[in-house]
Design goal:
Length: 260
């Protein structure tokens, strides 16, 4: 059985003081990160605090973005070498806000994925469609194109270190969310494509998450689906109590058993 993953994407939120307050409260919950994986993607400024404050608690952290080059004249960017110094294990790549607002193409995303593997990070690659594309019957085409590009030129070993997060663009920060059935259909589609492009073994082990207005009240339904292995959470990950409730509701009795 694949390990359940709960990832919090803080986006452009949290000062250093707010990050410290969050971590000091969150890491004290018994059972966190035991029997499941907890992962945070804070803003760049907070990465150093993750390294300092998490300590021995089994929580991982990563960057929300990364340039594909190690160094150079790229004002405002951050390099893989810098992230490695800050203890990042993961990099979030291809989030819809990076693609839609900042114009990142599939080719740019693929370059970042290659750089992430080169430096030993685990890429979490976001894919998803707009509402217009879904209504127009193009959701599968869009997502499969993104998946194909994300897997191109990777070895099986590299692909095995990668995960996908299906985030329908129309459900991010809108209060709308895909039904559990729709999310399962898309995650199963992604897993089938990984089988076709890489191997059945890699596909069977690969974590595929759902993201899009995930809340404590709807997480259990998503995690009951066979091809959804966790959640990439935005707004509901900004407060320790709501993120913890998501994890508890997803794991049910298992969380209590682990915590005790």
């Amino acid at each position: 059985m694949r390990e359940k993953i709960f990832a919090g994407n803080w986006k452009m939120n949290k000062t250093l003081a707010e990050t410290e307050a969050f971590l000091q409260e969150f890491v004290n919950y018994p059972g966190i990160g035991r029997g499941h994986q907890v992962l945070f993607f804070p803003p760049f400024t907070a990465l150093v605090l993750m390294k300092e404050l998490i300590g021995s608690v089994p929580i991982q952290w990563g960057s929300q973005n990364m340039h594909s080059k190690d160094s150079g004249a790229f004002t405002g960017e951050i390099s893989p070498l810098m992230l490695a110094e800050l203890g990042c294990s993961h990099v979030l790549i291809g989030h819809s806000e990076r693609r839609e607002i900042f114009g990142e193409s599939d080719a740019m995303v693929a370059e970042k994925i290659a750089a992430a593997h080169k430096h030993g990070f685990k890429p979490m690659v976001c894919v998803g469609e707009t509402l217009e594309e879904r209504k127009g019957g193009q959701a599968d085409v869009k997502v499969l194109r993104q998946v194909d590009s994300a897997l191109a030129d990777l070895t099986a070993e590299q692909a095995a270190r990668q995960s996908f997060a299906y985030e329908p663009i129309w459900a991010i920060g809108t209060g709308l969310n895909a039904s559990s059935g729709d999310a399962q259909t898309m995650c199963a589609l992604i897993r089938k494509r990984v089988t076709e492009k890489v191997s059945e073994d890699v596909s069977a082990a690969m974590p595929i998450l759902y993201g899009g207005s995930v809340k404590p009240g709807n997480i259990a339904e998503y995690l009951q689906q066979p091809d959804i292995d966790g959640a990439l959470v935005g707004g509901a990950s900004l407060k320790p109590d709501s993120f913890l409730e998501i994890i508890k509701n997803a794991l049910g009795d298992l969380f209590g058993q682990v915590a005790n």
